[in-house]
Fold Peptidoglycan-binding protein.
Amino acid sequence: MRRNRLLTSAAVLGAAVALGPAVPHTAAASGQNCSYVASGQQPTLAYGDTGAAVRQAQCLSNAWGGQPPKLALDGVYGTVMQKKIEWIQTCHGLPASGVIEGRTWHVLYHPALDCYVPYPS
């Protein structure tokens, strides 16, 4: 009986080790390294806006890995940033408006580990 428990435990442990990399991990909040504005300061941002809040959104969007370009932290909401925000919104099932508001701020602070929507070329 004891031997069966040991074998079962060993099998479960072996499976957990083997499957560990395949199990999705939760993404940590990415705001910890972006401190241009307080996390509670989340104004609506759109193409053409400038300032510290835009820089915060740029920094947060850079937590996304893969093909999306890293944005320059210049505080200017330009076309490259708009394209990236629209892609991030699509990844989270939000309307791809390019406007950063409450729900988009939330996903910027809590990015998905993976997005299965290809980044537009």
